[in-house]
Amino acid sequence: MAGSSLLALIDDIATLLDDVSVMTKVATQKTAGVLGDDLALNAQQVAGVAADRELPVVWAVAKGSAINKAILVPVALALSFYLEAAVVPLMMIGGAFLCFEGVEKIAHKFLHTDAEDKQHHKDMLKALTTDSDLVAFEKDKIKGAIRTDFILSAEIIVITLGAVKEATFTHQVAVLTLISVIMTIGVYGLVAGIVKLDDGGVYLVEQKGANAWARFKQQLGRLILWFAPYLMKTLSVAGTVAMFLVGGGILTHNVPALHHFIAGLTPKTEPLGTVTSWSADAAIGIVVGIIVLAMVQVARKLFLRKR
Q: What's this model's pTM, rounded to 2 decimal places?
């Protein structure tokens, strides 16, 4: 009896883990857009930090990110358990915010003058002139990155919760916990690698020797140094595109009339059907992002006028 109970327990655990792995895969796909943007934003957050302080800064932000998720996961689970009706609206707010961020990034050069950008650059250089300013600058960087992470982590948790809202409470706990761990380790592990990529390139270029192996390392170092800036630009562009795809997708899939309208226009043949669906999601995302950005700009002007 004990043996059969143990086997039944093992079978239940195996079934649970299999279900969790499937749901985690689905949730990971749904949060991929936020992950891409999270990666690009956090890599940019450590720009300007002294080279020997990059990894400590990334580690500090990673610990802050873990604390963010330790707060957000129980809150999300409590909402799902006690106020399930709030999950979809929160998902849609998160989707609209993603679209807003994407449009804001594109519209940045129209919303900020060259003089403002140059002044920001001067302020950064000035902050690096003394040790006391450097410490304050680093702390500001860490605080800013943790605030950014909180917003993106909230979006990831809400999107994940929406993906598993029909699952049991045990499955929801397991998937949210697993996603949180994967996202934190994955994002900040990659950020650490990206910010030190140029150091790795310099190390390889400075290798001594004239044999074939030494020349290979030197050429590889030069290739890395050439590639690193393009990687950051690519991540930024991919993150922006993913914002519209994921944010627009959340909105279209949770507005039945809009979802059915797009489904009716989507060809049944692949890959044309997928491309059409993605294009529709992106278009909706851009339109919603423009509307939200316009509302935010009006609200800012009204607030400044009152002050």
A: 0.66
Q: Which two tokens stand for residue 73?
A: 């996961």
CA–CA separation, 137 and 117 (whole Å): 18
pLDDT at res. 129:
52
The ranges assigned to domains in the chain are 2-306
Nearest-5° Cα angle at 177, 285 to 100: 15
SS3 content of the chain, % helix, strand, coil (to 5): 90, 0, 10
CA distances from 111 to 58, 117, 166, 193, 286 (A): 29, 11, 42, 32, 17
CA 276 – CA 263 distance, rounded (Å)? 10
pLDDT tens by residue, 45-93: 555 555 566 677 778 888 888 998 999 999 888 887 788 788 778 878 8
Give the list of residues 6+ apart from residue 283 with CB closer than 8 angstroms, or none.
248
